[in-house]
Task: inverse folding
């Protein structure tokens, strides 16, 4: 992010990598297990790589008097998401299948990409 002068541009790239990875994993549902495992490892690594950058961006985007609140909100949202996602993902997989759960995960990453768009020039 320091090289490109933006915290949000790399976050948006990571979001697209996650969308592509989960979509490919959904398509490979009945495919070769080693290929599916490789795609999931890369996608999972991407999915957990954004937190430090997002935390930094939250602090930089906030006005000086609200930095603490912004960081607290970002961390709270992150940990609530981490607590809720496994149960939600399991429920979707149980009700609609593994590819549907991956499609929901891809949709969440696509939503993150879209939501970060208006902030591009900010951080």
Result:
């Amino acid at each position: 992010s320091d090289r490109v002068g933006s915290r949000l541009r790399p976050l948006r790239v990571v979001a697209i990598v996650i969308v592509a990875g989960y979509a490919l994993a959904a398509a490979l549902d009945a495919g070769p297990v080693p290929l599916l495992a490789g795609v999931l490892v890369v996608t999972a690594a991407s999915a957990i790589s954004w937190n430090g950058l997002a935390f930094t961006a939250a602090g930089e985007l906030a006005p000086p008097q609200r930095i603490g609140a912004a960081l607290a909100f970002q961390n709270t949202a992150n940990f609530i998401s981490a607590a809720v996602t496994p149960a939600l993902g399991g429920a979707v997989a149980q009700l609609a299948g593994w590819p549907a759960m991956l499609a929901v995960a891809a949709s969440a990453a696509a939503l993150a990409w879209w939501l970060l768009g208006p902030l591009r020039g900010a951080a």
Notes: The chain has one domain: 8-117. The helical segments are 8-27, 33-48, 51-61, 67-96, 98-116. The chain has a mean pLDDT of 90. The longest helix spans residues 67-96.
